[in-house]
Amino acid sequence: MQNSAFLYFLTLMLFRQKSKHIGAIMISVIIIFLLSAVLFISSSLQYSLLATLEGQADFSVSRVQAGRPVNTPVEWVERILEINGVSHVAPRIYGRYFFTPREKSFLVVGIDFFDEQNSKAMEKLIEEIDLKRFLSAESMLVGEGVKRFLEAHYFKNDFTFKTPKGTFKKVKIYKVLPEQTNLIANDMIVMPLELAREVFGMRDDEVTDITFNVPNDAEWDNIITKLHLMFYDVRVVEKREIKKAYENLYNYKGGLFLILYLVSIVTFMLVLYQRYSMVYSTERKEIGILRATGWSIKDILRLKFYENLIIVIVSFTVGVVLAYLYVFIFDAPLLSQIFLGGANLPNRVSFIPALEFGILGSVFLFYAVPFLAAVLIPAWKIAVTSPREAMQ
User: Fold this and answer.
1) What is the rounded average pLDDT of the residues 15-29?
2) How does this protein lie in the membrane (predicted)?
């Protein structure tokens, strides 16, 4: 068969049955768009969180009593420094401050701004801060979510904390943390260590936990053993555990959408298969005429294959491009809240493009193979019949 005749019939089939093809493309685009958008969001959030995690300390140590976390003695800092292989030991104070009237909370983090490890972890948050001016008064840095919440409740330039001792502590809002840190800092308040200790009513010899690094990865398990031997009431959290928890969280949420995608695609393919199994008489006659004029079964299947391959490629390309624009240009309104959550302060995040082409390739195969099979099998059943029977 000449290529010109094949291309002519291929073009004719595409335009002659364009209403049927447009319907299949629209449904396919919606399915691929939703799954691609979820995968883009999940990949971007994991990339951003894991990149942020790289700047955090390797370990954090806190004290527990009867399975309940309690304040950690500052003297533990000197004892941890005595362990060979440990570096950048720093005390830290953090905890949730609840704004009772509205049942909302802020994550208050108190750090030593002159400590090397803390400065590295908070580098992106405080890179434009004049520390001398910041530390000259009782000030704090707040996330965008905190700033919007406080302004809505008439706290424009400062906020008054109620301490556990029943006193009030007025703290100036020095600056809003950068927008690109919203993923981790939206509901965060950063303040000096001593000020945070006063807000939470802690003694001068107490902190929430102690962070440190172990440059040699091979020593991590050994260091954990030494800590448990040194302190009987210690809890050690590794950076690896936090990383794994983040991965599991977003893989779980993305997996739920993958299951819904598979259910949707199977349902769509079953409908498509039934549609092509009950081929209209005109379409049956077309195949019969082609067989009668000398087209082989292979030629007919090739025609149907390329016809629907074009539909598959167009649908997949449009769905992925729309998902990319929706997530990375418009920041995925509505759908992003499924991943970010809205139980506390509303968050607005700018997603960083992080594409996993292996996953997109798998999505294409999961979509293309069932789609083509649902079309080619009924076409093959007609093509193998005699031309006279097909044209009846």
Assistant:
1) 81
2) Multi-pass membrane protein
Q: Do 107 and 8 belong to one domain?
A: no
Predicted confidence at residue 266, as pLDDT, reads 72
Task: Determine the Cα–Cα distance for residues 42 and 9; give it in Å rounded to an integer.
Answer: 43
Separation CA 329–CA 59 (nearest Å): 36
φ and ψ at 92, to 5 degrees?
A: -150, 150
Residues 69, 204, single domain; the answer is yes
Coil, strand, or helix at residue 25? helix
Strand partners, 190: 109, 141
309: tokens are: 């391959």
> Of 169, 191, 213, which residue is a domain's last?
213
The pTM assigned to this predicted structure is 0.78
φ/ψ region of 106 (left if φ > 0, alpha if ψ in -120 to 50, else beta) reads beta
Instruction: State whether residue 344 is helix, strand or coil.
Output: coil
Which residues on neighbouring strands pair with residue 370, listed in sequence order? none
pLDDT for position 113: 77
pLDDT single digits (tens) 136-168: 889 999 989 899 999 988 888 999 999 888 889
Per-residue confidence (pLDDT) for residue 331, from 0 to 100: 86
CA dihedral 120, 126, 131, 137 (to 10 degrees): -120
Full domain range(s) for residue 24? 3-51+245-390
Task: Confirm whether 226 is domain-assigned.
Answer: no
Closest of 9, 1, 2, 69 to residue 305, by C-alpha:
9
Are residues 33 and 87 located together in one domain of the fold? no
Count of CA atoms in the C-beta half-sphere (13 A) of 158: 10
> Token pair for residue 145?
């979510």
Q: DSSP string spanning 158-193? A: EEEEEPTTS-EEEEEEEEEPPGGGHHHHTTEEEEEH
CB-CB neighbours of 52 under 10 Å: 16
Residue 251 tokens read as 């893989």
Q: Calculate mean pLDDT across residues 34-39.
A: 84
Q: Are 309 and 292 in the same domain?
A: yes
374: three-class secondary structure by DSSP: helix
Residue 119 has pLDDT above 60, yes or no: no
The whole-angstrom separation of Cα 101 and Cα 41 is 33
